[in-house]
Amino acid sequence: MAKAVIGVFRSEDRAREAISELKRNGFDEREISLVAKDNKRQGNSGQSEPDQRLTMENQNLGEGVFTGGALGGIAGLLAGAGALLIPGVGPIIAAGPLAAFLTGVVGGGLAGGLVDFGIPEERGRYFEERVKEGDILVTIKASNDEVPEIASILEDNGAEDVEIH
């Protein structure tokens, strides 16, 4: 049974290093997800500018098009990154399989997408708050035997709150 390993990064550089190391160690980038606040889409008031709102409805994340720009270097490591407007969070960058779970998110926000991805609701709300604060989530789906190595890579690269679900 596949498990979701999730870690929180305070630094884009650290998250980038972790993703690169996962890929170097043979983990499939199609199983790696990234979620981060898209600060380039924030206006001075912290609200998304109306003409820049993007949703999953008008994007094909499978094409590998990155529209956000805020985390170009890190999201460029993963195919299919896109900018989304998530209720309660605002504009984010999402890539990987987790991005598909955020499609059509209305009432559940990011926490709801994380629940659909296999993260318990209480932890999903916690991780949603971390993204609101500007932290970066990296998740990867893995088999039981891969979990210890993935958790170690995330922790060695500065991830906080590394959890397996």
Main beta sheet: 6 strands, antiparallel
Taking the alpha carbons of the first and last residues, their distance comes to 11 Å
Number of helices: 6
Instruction: Give helix and strand order, one letter per element, not per position.
Output: EHEHEEHHHEHE
Overall radius of gyration: 14 Å
Walkthrough of the structure:
This protein has 165 residues and is an alpha+beta fold. The chain has one domain. 32% of the residues lie in helices and 22% in strands. It contains 6 helices and 6 strands, in the order βαβαββαααβαβ. It has helices spanning 12-24, 72-75, 97-101, 109-117, 121-132, 147-156, and strands at 3-9, 32-37, 82-86, 90-95, 136-142, 160-164. The chain has a 6-stranded antiparallel β-sheet, with helices on both faces. A hairpin with a 3-residue loop joins β3 and β4 (90-95). α1 (12-24) runs antiparallel to α6 (147-156) and α4 (109-117) packs across α5 (121-132). The protein is globular, with a radius of gyration of 14 Å. The termini are close together. Mean pLDDT is 76; it is low at 42-71.
